[in-house]
Design brief:
Blueprint (H helix, E strand, L loop, with lengths): L3 H20 L7 E4 L5 H22 L7 E6 L2 H5 L1 H4 L5 E5 H9 L10 H6 L16 H15 L4 E5 L6 H10 L3 E2 L6 H13 L1
Parallel strand pairs: 1-2, 2-3, 3-4, 4-5
Helix pairs in contact: 1-2, 8-9
Length: 202
């Protein structure tokens, strides 16, 4: 918001790369994700910048058909609660479950190492909520965001990104919650695929 030139630079790089691919005969469909959104006006502000750069790149490159979408990361609890409004301006949601967990619990990932061991040892927490989604709290926030987002856009594409996307229990939760995809670190992809298949079979 305060440094629009960052959005301009990133959007230009994305669209110019996509235009190059299309000119070389390849398919390109960039999905641009605006992070840390808590208010629909933030995504509207960024979308206007992205659209302006998109029009400039299309004119400059001469590529007439340059499809793209703009979505947002739902990683702030308020965003999940006002997801119906945010969905008015977003083509897709990706739940940033690491930050959503941090902000829902009020834990800092930077210093939780000093107390998490004791919480697990004493049974205050059954599992590390940064490794497996806390379905009672964070999970309810996610379900709320999905339900409210799809009230506005029935076919809204929704997934998660972060380490939870490679955790079998979290993947099963995501499937049951109605998500379309999960993303994770490359080395976790085989586990994620297997867990997704098992979730469907269950």
């Amino acid at each position: 918001i305060t440094y629009p030139e960052i959005t301009q630079t990133e959007a230009r790089a994305i669209f110019e790369a996509a235009a190059e691919l299309i000119k070389s005969g390849k398919k390109a469909y960039p999905e641009i994700m605006v992070p840390v959104v808590a208010n629909v006006n933030e995504i509207k502000d960024q979308y206007a910048i992205i659209k302006k750069i998109y029009d400039e790149v299309k004119t400059k490159t001469g590529v007439k058909n340059l499809p793209y979408s703009v979505g947002t990361m739902i990683e702030i609890p308020r965003a999940a609660l006002v997801a119906d409004k945010i969905a008015e301006s977003a083509h897709f949601f990706s739940f940033g479950t690491n930050d959503l967990t941090q902000l829902t619990y009020g834990f800092s990932r930077d210093d939780m190492g000093g107390f998490l061991g004791a919480y697990l040892e004493k049974g205050i927490l059954a599992v590390d909520p940064f490794q497996s989604i806390d379905t009672e709290g964070v999970g309810e926030m996610i379900k709320t965001g999905i339900n409210r987002g799809r009230k506005t856009k029935k076919d809204l594409k929704i997934g998660i990104c972060g380490e939870h996307g490679g955790d079998p229990a979290s993947i099963e939760f995501c499937y049951k919650a109605g998500m379309n995809y999960v993303s994770c670190s490359p080395f976790r992809v085989p586990i994620a695929r297997l867990a997704a298949a098992q979730a469907v079979l269950k």
